[in-house]
UniProtKB/TrEMBL annotation:
Entry-linked Gene3D superfamilies: 3.40.630.30
Protein name: RimJ/RimL family protein N-acetyltransferase
Pfam family, one: Acetyltransf_3
PROSITE patterns hit by this protein: GNAT
One GO CC term, this protein: cytoplasm
Annotated ranges, domain N-acetyltransferase: 8-173
GO molecular function: protein N-terminal-serine acetyltransferase activity; protein-N-terminal-alanine acetyltransferase activity
Keywords: Transferase
Length: 187
């Protein structure tokens, strides 16, 4: 299992990451693209959150920091959620800091995550819910092989009105067609 690609390395959140997460949260539109707008948090709150994340036991629901290989800088994070071990499916969310977007970090981080969840944890399907106005995320997931599975109309409320959510999914078989698992021992 690789946690490092050509552009990014996935690693656990460290207590000293609090400043980068605070910087990422300073852009309301980025918060909304990744999830939703949260109230401002104090410096102490960010420190405590990063400390707690660094100590959290990782089961099938976890958060990873996304670090650039070139500079070793924290560029974002991703987190698994909605894990259903009986059905073999999970979801995830990803956020890349504004100053690091459009560099291929998100796509590579998602591929590394999917290789782990499909190849090591035996999940069958990954599902994502994307705000319909987030064309960049929809295009990314399209490029990664996710298929559109539906649209939830007027599903989320923020910025004074309701917004649609696009549902997309990818099975392990679809993933491995594009990204075969490497041999156990390289030749």
């Amino acid at each position: 299992m690789r946690w490092t690609g050509a552009k990014v390395r996935l690693r656990g959140v460290e207590p000293e990451d609090w400043q980068a997460f605070m910087r990422f949260d300073s852009h309301v539109s980025d918060m909304r693209d990744a999830d939703m707008v949260h109230p401002p948090r104090s410096t102490a709150g960010y420190r405590a959150w990063a400390e707690a994340e660094s100590l959290r036991e990782a089961g099938d629901e976890f958060r990873l920091a996304i670090e650039s290989v070139a500079g070793g800088e924290l560029v974002g994070s991703l987190a698994t959620s909605a894990v259903d071990t009986r059905a073999g499916r999970f979801s995830y969310g990803i956020g890349i800091g504004r100053e690091h977007q459009r560099r291929g970090y998100a796509g590579e981080a998602v591929v590394l995550l999917l290789a782990y969840m499909f190849g090591e944890r035996r999940f069958h399907k990954c599902e994502v819910a994307i705000h319909a106005f987030n064309g960049a995320s929809i295009a990314l997931h399209d490029k990664l092989g996710f298929r559109s599975e539906g649209r939830l109309r007027d599903h989320e409320f923020f910025s004074g009105r309701h917004h649609d959510v696009v549902l997309m999914g990818l099975t392990a078989a679809e993933f491995t067609t594009r990204h075969p698992f490497p041999p156990l021992r390289p030749a």
